[in-house]
Amino acid sequence: MSTLGEGRIVVGTARGERGDVIDLVRRWFDAMASGDLDSASKLMAPGHRIIISGGHRFSSLGEFAVFAAGRYREVRKQCDSFEACEAAGGFAVYVRGEMSGSWADGTVFSRVRWCDRFLVQAGNIIELDTFSDLAEARSTELLK
């Protein structure tokens, strides 16, 4: 804590649970961006679930990576915001941004909106739901 001015204003710098869960999710994104599935997996609870747009369900990052490798040559996510709130079963962390990359056939996509919702409980990610406009982007490319 520090004291400012003659009025002796006290400024607290305590860290809250929301900041902690956002940091956890940032570490997960950093690991994924560097291709370190092992480190990202260690941030997820045993028995976690992943559901992506289209209702595709996975019980491990390895399963998800195999699925993604069949769809994309590469994907890059830009994280524009992190927000956390209390939720049933823990804390929800919402991450929004845009992604770019290329489909397996080489077709490029960019500026595609996405939003991921993580449910964090006891310091581990237990759920990941991801939503995006990739289907819209793909159908637009097919119509060209």
Structural overview:
The chain has 144 residues and is α+β, with helices and mostly antiparallel strands. The protein contains four helices and eight strands, in the order ββααββαββββα. It has a single domain (17-143), classed as Nuclear Transport Factor 2, Chain: A (Roll), CATH 3.10.450. Strand 6 (90-103) and strand 7 (108-121) form a beta hairpin.
Query: Any idea of the CATH topology?
Result: Nuclear Transport Factor 2, Chain: A
Main sheet makeup: 6 strands, mixed
Radius of gyration: 18 Å
| Number of E strands | 8
SSE order, one letter for each helix or strand: EEHHEEHEEEEH
- How far apart the termini lie comes to 59 Å
User: Overall pLDDT, averaged?
Assistant: 88
Oligomeric state as shown:
single chain
Tally of contiguous helical segments: 4
Outline: globular
Low-confidence stretches: 1-5
Concise account of the structure shown:
With 144 residues, the chain is of the alpha+beta class.
Ordered list of secondary-structure elements with their pairings:
Blueprint: E1 2-4, E2 9-11, H1 17-33, H2 37-42, E3 44-52, E4 56-58, H3 61-71, E5 72-87, E6 90-103, E7 108-121, E8 124-132, H4 134-143
Parallel strand pairs: 3-8
Antiparallel strand pairs: 1-2, 3-4, 5-6, 6-7, 7-8
